[in-house]
Amino acid sequence: MDKQVKSYQRNLSLIKWNGFFAGFRIFLPLQYLFFQNNGLSYTQISVLIAAYSFGVLIFEVPSGVFADHFGRKKTLALAGALLALSYVLFGSSTTFIPLILASILYGM
């Protein structure tokens, strides 16, 4: 096999493993505890989870268009920066509204 075919096979294997481990969602119980520790009610926690889903829904197609226009590397770099920003917002927020924004950014 040539080098490019081996590279594709390796990438496919990595994608399969990524899907396997991403399906665990190990952080979810900790996320609930984090939100409860910050004094949020179950309703507010549900709103944050809905905001995450809203972010995924709204930005799925635009992120693909962005990737087609600007390239995958720039898109992944921007996604990483937005993910880091969402972590900063989660960690530094003391009120509910910034947590909603962080959840939407996390969904992007």
From TrEMBL:
<dbReference type="InterPro" id="IPR011701">
    <property type="entry name" value="MFS"/>
</dbReference>
<keyword id="KW-0472">Membrane</keyword>
<dbReference type="GO" id="GO:0022857">
    <property type="term" value="F:transmembrane transporter activity"/>
</dbReference>
<dbReference type="InterPro" id="IPR005829">
    <property type="entry name" value="Sugar_transporter_CS"/>
</dbReference>
<dbReference type="GO" id="GO:0016020">
    <property type="term" value="C:membrane"/>
</dbReference>
<dbReference type="InterPro" id="IPR020846">
    <property type="entry name" value="MFS_dom"/>
</dbReference>
<feature type="domain" description="Major facilitator superfamily (MFS) profile">
    <location>
        <begin position="1"/>
        <end position="108"/>
    </location>
</feature>
<protein>
    <submittedName>
        <fullName>Major facilitator superfamily MFS_1</fullName>
    </submittedName>
</protein>
<dbReference type="InterPro" id="IPR036259">
    <property type="entry name" value="MFS_trans_sf"/>
</dbReference>
<dbReference type="Pfam" id="PF07690">
    <property type="entry name" value="MFS_1"/>
</dbReference>
<keyword id="KW-1133">Transmembrane helix</keyword>
<feature type="transmembrane region" description="Helical">
    <location>
        <begin position="45"/>
        <end position="66"/>
    </location>
</feature>
<dbReference type="InterPro" id="IPR053160">
    <property type="entry name" value="MFS_DHA3_Transporter"/>
</dbReference>
<feature type="transmembrane region" description="Helical">
    <location>
        <begin position="78"/>
        <end position="106"/>
    </location>
</feature>
<keyword id="KW-0812">Transmembrane</keyword>
<feature type="transmembrane region" description="Helical">
    <location>
        <begin position="12"/>
        <end position="33"/>
    </location>
</feature>
